[in-house]
Amino acid sequence: MAERSSPPPDDLVRLQRDADAARREAERQGHAPEARRVWQEATAVVKNAVAEHAAAEDVDARELERDVQEAAREANGADGG
């Protein structure tokens, strides 16, 4: 398995930011069923995309997921999101 040396792909970071936004909205709505469903679906999309990318690039999916989450947090902090 190859070691990652570059930042995670922008498309994965965007998906994670979308999932983070869905989480915040679910929390804002008191975890209303529909908002929670949107959050869960967004999270599943991220996990699937990370797994596919990791397999295609022969990198550790857990490490990639961690890098994606960190990059999304940094991006969200940079733009107030």
Features:
mainly alpha; 3 helices; 81 residues; globular; 0% strand
Describe this structure in words.
- There is one protein chain.
- The chain is mostly helical.
- The protein is built from 3 helices and no strands.
- The longest helix has 25 residues, at 33-57.
- It is globular.
- The termini are far apart.
Concise synopsis of the structure shown:
The chain has 81 residues and is an all-alpha fold. Helix content is 78%, strand content 0%. It contains 3 helices and no strands.
Structure annotation, total helices: 3
Order of helices and strands: HHH
Output mean pLDDT.
Answer: 93
Distance between the termini: 34 Å
The count of β-strands is 0
The backbone outline, from C-alpha atoms, is: globular
Structural category:
mainly alpha
Which stretches of 5+ consecutive residues score pLDDT under 50?
none
Outline the secondary-structure elements:
Elements lengths: L9 H19 L4 H25 L3 H19 L2
